Amino acid sequence: MTTEAATASSHDDHEIAHVMPLPVLFGVFATLMVLTFLTVAATWVNLGWFNLPIAMAIATVKATLVALYFMHLRYDAPFNGLAFLTALVFVALFILVTLLDTIAYKPSVDAYRDANSVSAPQ
Amino acid sequence: MSAAPDHDENHPHDLAHHFDTHRQQFDAGKLGMWIFLVTEILLFSGLFCAYVIYRANHPEIFIYAHQFLDKNLGALNTAVLIFSSLTMAWAVRAAQLEQKRALVRLLSITLACGFVFLGVKAVEYHHKWHDGLLWASQYNPKHHDSAEHNEAGHGAESDGEGLHGEEPKNVGLFFSIYFMMTGLHAVHVIAGMGAIAWVLNRARKGHFNRRYFGPVDFVGLYWHLVDLIWIYLFPLLYLIH
After folding, report:
1. What is the DSSP letter of B170?
2. B 97-156 near A (Cβ less than 8 A)
3. A121 and A101 share a domain?
4. A32 touching B (Cβ < 8 Å)
5. Is A13 within a domain?
6. Which of B11, B20, B27, B34 to mutate to test the interface with A (most CBs of A within 10 A)?
7. Is residue A15 included in any domain, yes or no?
8. Which residues are registered as beta bridge partners of B212?
9. Are A85 and A71 in the same domain?
10. Domain covering B22-238, topology
11. Quick one: A32 and A69 in the same domain?
12. Residue contact B38–A120, C-beta within 8 A
C-alpha cells in the first residue's frame, strides 16, 4: 500500500502545491513598493484624522497581497485562510472590546484626575 | 519532518513513515504552520491592543513622540523586508522546481536582508539610547540639536508643531510601546534568520526536491508573517500624523 501511494505521489508531482509564476511575484513586489511609497507620501498631506484610516487601508492592501501571493493563500486549501481570518476576527474583537472598556471609563478617570490634579499613570 | 526510519525500503526517505504521500505530508505541515502563525498573530495582538488603547487616550503623546523616529530608516527597512519576502517566495518556487543553485542563492539573499534589517534597527536603537529616548521609567531626553535632527528627519517633520512644540506629559509611554513592538518584532526576525540558515544548510546538502520542499515553504510562511507585521508597525509608529 505504501509503495502504491509513493508511486502515485510521484505521478502527481505538480499537484503538491501551486508553483508561483515569476511575473506574479515581481508584480506583487512592485505593487508593494509603490504602496510603501504612497503611504509615506500620504503623510506629506495633512488630512487631519483621515490620515490614519488611509495609512491603515494601504497597510491592509499590502498585507492582503503578501497573504494571497507570497503566502500562497489564494492557491491553498481554504482551511488555512480560514484559520488566518479567524485569528484576525479575534484580534478585532480583543481590541474593540478593550477600547469600548477604556472609553466607558474615561469620564470617571478624567474627573478623578481633575479633582486630584494627577497626570496619567506611567 | 527530518529523516524517516529506513526500515521500509520502498518508503521514500523524505516521507515520514506516518504519511502515505508527499502531498499529505506537505498539507499537514502547512496546516500546522498556519496554526502556529495564528498564535503568533494573537501574541502580537496584545501589543497592538496596548497601542490602540494608549493612542486613543493620549493621542498628543504619539503625535509628539513619533517625530523622534526617522521615517527614512523606517521606510528603508520596510523596503528591505518586502524585498526579502520576494526572494523568499522566489526561493520556494526554486525549491519546487529543483533549481538548487537558485534556491541556495535566494535563501542567502533573504538571510542577508535580515542582517541589513537588524543593522538599520541597531542604528535606530543606538540613536535613541544616546538621546535618552527610552521606555517610560528611563525616558530622559537630552536637549536636542535641531540641526542634527533636520538632517536625519528631512523637511517633512520640521513643519507643523515640530520638535519645538510643547512636550506633553508621559512621552515615555510611546517609547515603551515602541521598544516592545519593534523589539518583539526584531526577536522574530532573528528567529526567522535562524530558520532560514537551517533551511539554507539543508538546501546546500540537496535535501529538497519537487516532492519534498515543505521546510522551505513553512519557513517562508513565517518570514512573510514577520514582514506582514512590520507592514503595520511602520505606519503606526513612524508615520503618525
Report:
1. T
2. 97, 136-137, 156
3. yes
4. yes
5. no
6. B34
7. no
8. B209
9. no
10. Four Helix Bundle (Hemerythrin (Met), subunit A) (1.20.120)
11. yes
12. no
CB contact under 8 A, B89 and A43: no
B145 min Cα distance to partner chain A (Å): 23
Q: Specify the DSSP class assigned to residue A20.
A: P
| Out of A9, A55, A67, closest to residue B22 by CB | A9
Q: Are residues A48 and A35 in the same domain?
A: yes
**Cβ within 8 Å, pair B38-A83:** yes
B39 confidence band (pLDDT: 50, 70, 90):
very high
Distance CA B185, CA B236 (A): 14
Host domain of residue A88: 77-122
Residues near B228 by Cβ (< 8 Å), separated by ≥ 6?
A63, A66, A67
Our CA-based measurement puts residue A112 at a distance from the nearest CA of chain B, in whole angstroms, of 15
Statement to judge: residues A54 and A38 lie in one domain: yes
Give the B window 197-236 contacts with A, CB below 8 Å.
Answer: 210-211, 213, 217, 220-221, 224-225, 227-228, 231-232, 234-236
Q: Is A78 exposed, middle or buried (0-12, 13-18, 19+ CB in 10 A)?
A: exposed
Bridge partners of B209? B212
Grid cell locating B117: 534589517
Per-residue pLDDT of chain A (122 residues), as tens digits, is 344 444 444 444 456 888 999 999 999 999 999 999 999 999 888 888 888 999 999 999 999 999 999 999 999 989 999 999 999 999 999 999 999 999 998 888 888 888 887 655 54
Judged by a CB distance cut-off of 8 A, whether residue B170 touches chain A is: yes
Chain A interface disruption, residue of B64, B231, B233, B234, most A CBs within 10 A: B231
Asked if residue A72 and residue A55 are part of one domain, the reply reads yes
Within a domain: residue A89? yes
Which of B205, B72, B89, B126 shows the shortest CA–CA distance to A37?
B72
Classified as helix, coil or strand, B158 is coil
- Give the number of domains in chain A: 2
A5 in contact with B, Cβ within 8 Å: yes
Distance CA A8, CA B99 (A): 23
